[in-house]
């Protein structure tokens, strides 16, 4: 369990975060989403002990930050937005070095990750491409089977195959019982791997959603071409695209009545789009 209560952090006079509050259960994947500058990275950096909060409490199970930093570090995995280790070190040497930090270092899992991620251990870190650096970061963040896994924009710079592998590793960690927190802009990935999301805006956590609830909450976009528009349709959110072509945005709960009205109209064609998460989030970002 990760519990964050009324977290506040200022950089001098600049607002980092104002009030961030959430709880993540064991085995749950929680996504922090928000526009640039909202305060996601600040929140994650406080949680990994890199920054100290001005106010608020953080608990990792029975341990509290910052006082139990040492105990928490053993149980924590972190993948930063930009992975940077010692440039001159060969990956093989880096893995030996990293092993020394963790009581629960899992050599079998290391082997699995090296194979799955196709990592060349003979290269120096500075010789790797961005995506290959990230692979080392992914391995390093999970190889000690952390109880808590924190990922900052994890798929940034990854090709689709590697993204898929990362999703599989996150799923594996979830099955092992890790509590997982990550930040993201990519709503399709949030939808795919999160159980819950928190929306951060201007330093505040303004809304939480269960992913399933979010889907119910969504609207359908309905395009109708050559529609004979009748008055009853006026009360629904609509836009005239051109001539007699219309786009309606209908909440799921109103669909039945809407189609009832539509049955009295004539039209040439209908297209119904899946709800777009972007539209929902943009409402909150505004
Ligand atoms: N070292 C710093 N000194 C001063 N202000 C900072 C510093 N780091 C972050 N900030 C400010 O804190 C606020 C939150 O930034 P943060 O990087 O946490 O946002 P974010 O949601 O992670 O955005 P992004 O997705 O762009 O990384 C921003 O207004 C930013 O300008």
Polypeptide structure, described:
It comes from Oceanotoga teriensis. One of its GO terms (molecular function) is ATP binding. Belongs to the ABC transporter superfamily. This is ABC-2 type transport system ATP-binding protein. Keywords: ATP-binding, Nucleotide-binding, Transport. By secondary structure, the protein is of the alpha/beta class. The protein folds into two domains: 214 residues, P-loop containing nucleotide triphosphate hydrolases (Rossmann fold); 58 residues, Alpha-Beta Plaits (2-Layer Sandwich). Helix content is 33%, strand content 31%. It contains ten helices and 14 strands. The strands form three sheets. Strands 6-7-8-3-9-10 form a six-stranded mixed β-sheet, sandwiched between helices. Strand 1 and strand 2 form a beta hairpin. Helix 5 runs parallel beside helix 6. The longest helix has 16 residues. The chain is elongated and about 75 Å long. The two termini are 31 Å apart. Bound molecules: adenosine-5'-triphosphate.
């Amino acid at each position: 369990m990760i519990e964050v209560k009324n977290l506040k952090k200022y950089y001098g006079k600049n607002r980092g975060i104002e009030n961030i509050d959430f709880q993540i259960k064991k085995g749950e994947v929680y996504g922090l989403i928000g526009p640039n500058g909202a305060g996601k990275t600040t929140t994650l950096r406080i949680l990994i002990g890199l920054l100290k909060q001005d106010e608020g409490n953080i608990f990792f199970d029975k341990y509290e930050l910052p006082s139990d930093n040492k105990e928490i570090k053993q149980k924590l995995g972190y993948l930063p937005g930009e992975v940077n280790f010692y440039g001159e070190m060969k990956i093989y040497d880096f893995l030996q070095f990293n092993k020394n930090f963790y009581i629960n270092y899992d050599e079998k899992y290391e082997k699995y990750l090296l194979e799955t991620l196709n990592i060349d251990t003979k290269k120096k870190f500075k010789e790797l491409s961005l995506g290959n650096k990230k692979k080392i970061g992914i391995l390093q963040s999970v190889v000690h089977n952390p109880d808590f896994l924190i990922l900052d924009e994890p798929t940034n710079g990854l090709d689709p195959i590697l993204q898929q592998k990362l999703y599989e590793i996150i799923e594996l960690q979830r099955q092992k019982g890790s509590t997982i927190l990550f930040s993201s802009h990519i709503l399709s990935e949030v939808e795919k791997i999160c159980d819950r999301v928190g929306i951060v805006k201007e330093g505040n956590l303004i809304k939480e959603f269960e992913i399933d609830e979010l889907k119910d909450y969504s609207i359908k976009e309905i395009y109708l071409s050559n529609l004979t528009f009748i008055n009853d349709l006026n009360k629904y959110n609509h836009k005239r695209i051109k001539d007699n072509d219309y786009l309606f945005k209908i909440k799921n709960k109103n669909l039945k009545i809407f189609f009832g009205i539509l049955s009295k109209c004539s039209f040439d064609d209908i297209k119904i789009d899946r709800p777009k998460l972007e539209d929902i989030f943009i409402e909150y970002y505004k």
